[in-house]
Amino acid sequence: MLRIGPFSFDFPVVQAALSGYSDAPMRIMARRHGAPYAIHELVLDKLVLTRGKLQRKILSLTDDDHPVGGQLMGAEPRQFAEAAALMHESGFDVVDINFGCPVRKVLGRCRGGYLLSEPQTAIEIIRCVRSAVSRETPVTLKMRRGMDDSPESERDFFRIFDAAWEHGLAAITVHGRTVRQKYVGPSNWEFLARVKRLAGERVILGSGDLFTAGDIVRMLNETGVDGVTVARGCIGNPWIFQEARALLEGRPLPEPPTVAEQGRVIRAHFELSQAHHGEKQAARLMRKFGIKYSELHPAGAAVRDAFIRASARDQWLRVLEEWYSPTREWPPGVRKMGCGALLAAGACEE
Prior knowledge:
single chain; alpha/beta; Non-ribosomal Peptide Synthetase Peptidyl Carrier Protein, Chain A; nine-stranded parallel sheet; 11 strands; 13% strand
């Protein structure tokens, strides 16, 4: 059981905010495969507040996309809070504050992970956002474990961490890498375990290096966190949620999706994207998803190349007809099997 404010979930695995990926179609596909809660892709507070087509798109939610969190990034507390209030008024169920993004241009503008080095500003943002939305609306926080590995950075982390609880935040997600690490090197799960011990009954979600269902189970078991947020590991692999549910319920790991099933899911994802973004834009946007979906296909390299070349709806449909035909006898589908998944499935030993 995972609880975030008034929301209770029987499955502690969340689809994380993913810049450029976790739009409404991706979130809905994740929900169809078992994710009980999903977070909108990271958006800049200024874009939420600027009237126009982009603002309407950011704030547009469908009935089958709840509960949904809106993750915000910014540098100025009052503007951040105004954007949070507008997201809440537009129907977002949770407001999530991002102090974790490690992208250089974000750091250069004093946003995202940069704020871990400015605890006073970070705490003021937390205070303003919490005050800007109703008390019934959960406010959550996404952090990395610090700007770097220095003692000063760790002190700043815990100063912000403690203040978040004091201001009434409902949950904190901690990514086990530092901002300086970006995505290089392993996520420090020992730090996550330490944070959870310090948090006690308060809700901590873990993040980092969750690429298989086995990784999810292992993080929950090894760190004691209340839940996890899956990011890169669910791009092109919504099946990770139902696989993790099976393992957590003590059932065997399901068979990997057949090629025909993969094709049905990709087609459904494409149709959702077309309805949400329009035919022309969907054909372009879906290429990056197609590349990730191809990793599960037994002829992955060829399928990847075919998706890269597809730039219109008819080309997409031809790729699906050629490479995902249910009438063809395909080899078994491929599963992403990191060591964590192999251990969970009993297929290898440490």
